[in-house]
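Researcher: Quick test of sequence recovery. Tokens follow.
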């Protein structure tokens, strides 16, 4: 395993949040420090701590961001944030999804947490991130009296086996894609065969069935505070965005932490690396073209998020982090100039 640079456009540090330092290295350490600072500030009657939003894109590397040298033109909203905020240049992560997320959430190296290899707990159960062992930064914010929320992708716990785990990790409000196999699409015999394959570590018995996972895109499945929802005809990222905006509106008068682990730009499933977006519903187009659409849609959502913060009068007192979890799939890696 080797570290790779994770694009982290630490953006929109304005107003009373103060002037940013020239570089930030241990990002999670900064978040833990903020949690402690917020706890102290919350006790002062005339001081409102800054709001924190951490948005994280999935499976896209620095070579796709204009602020890191890309000439593809897919991230104008994120690039605009960087131009008025801070670009982090020294931020490293394991080069695969689950371990990189655990590093962010815990601030600990993989050899300390045990998350050295990718294990998709949502699909295979077992081996999830244990709140009795690991303290995640959202828990510190919650314990400091800050309202906390999450919407998007989790993956590092099986949310049906551990229905209270997100609450135990510190998230007061939740709308997440579970990322498990969709039991509505299985016969009892197929389910039995699937779990036997998981126990036997049999790729042959599990691979095809893992393609029938709950959708994160069209006709998505979500867990809202532990209750399962389906949304026929809807686009998953839009459902998450609606939750985020509602969270902001309801909590605009008090400090909050909102964690946004987006499902974009990850593919639909292992054998389907791209998906159409509301920008263009046409299927069967070249995969690189569709990947660019996915990134453009993620960037659009970041732009809409900033616009909503401004509309609510929250922009000047909100620290917005924009990052990705690890890097781009090999088939979609792009050339870049820096």
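Model:
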């Amino acid at each position: 395993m080797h570290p790779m640079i994770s694009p982290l456009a630490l953006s929109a540090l304005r107003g009373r949040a103060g002037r940013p330092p020239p570089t930030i290295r241990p990002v999670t350490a900064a978040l833990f420090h903020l949690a402690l600072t917020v706890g102290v500030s919350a006790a002062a009657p005339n001081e409102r701590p800054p709001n924190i939003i951490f948005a994280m894109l999935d499976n896209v590397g620095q070579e796709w961001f204009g602020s890191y040298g890309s000439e593809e033109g897919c991230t104008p909203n994120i690039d605009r944030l960087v131009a008025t905020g801070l670009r982090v240049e020294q931020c490293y992560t394991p080069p695969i999804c689950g371990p990189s997320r655990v590093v962010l959430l815990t601030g600990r190296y993989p050899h300390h947490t045990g998350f050295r290899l990718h294990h998709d707990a949502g699909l295979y159960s077992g081996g999830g991130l244990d709140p009795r062992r690991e303290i995640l930064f959202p828990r510190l914010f919650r314990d400091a009296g800050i309202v906390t929320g999450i919407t998007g992708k989790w993956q590092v716990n099986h949310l049906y086996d551990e229905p209270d785990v997100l609450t135990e990790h510190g998230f007061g409000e939740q709308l997440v894609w579970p990322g498990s196999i969709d039991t509505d699409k299985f016969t009892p015999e197929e389910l039995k065969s699937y779990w036997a394959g998981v126990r036997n570590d049999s790729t042959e018995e599990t691979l095809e069935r893992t393609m029938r996972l709950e959708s994160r895109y069209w006709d998505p499945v979500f867990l809202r505070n532990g209750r399962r929802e389906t949304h026929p005809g809807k686009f998953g990222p839009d459902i998450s965005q609606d939750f985020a905006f509602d969270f902001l509106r309801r909590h605009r008068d008090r400090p909050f932490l909102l964690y946004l682990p987006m499902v974009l730009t990850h593919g639909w499933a292992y054998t389907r690396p791209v998906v159409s977006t509301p920008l263009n519903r046409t299927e069967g187009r070249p995969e690189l073209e569709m990947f660019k659409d996915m990134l453009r849609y993620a960037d659009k959502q970041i732009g809409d998020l900033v616009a909503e913060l401004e509309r609510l009068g929250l922009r000047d007192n909100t620290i917005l982090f924009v990052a990705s979890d690890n890097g781009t799939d090999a088939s979609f890696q792009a050339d870049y100039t820096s």
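The CA atoms of residues 182 and 214 lie 5 Å apart.
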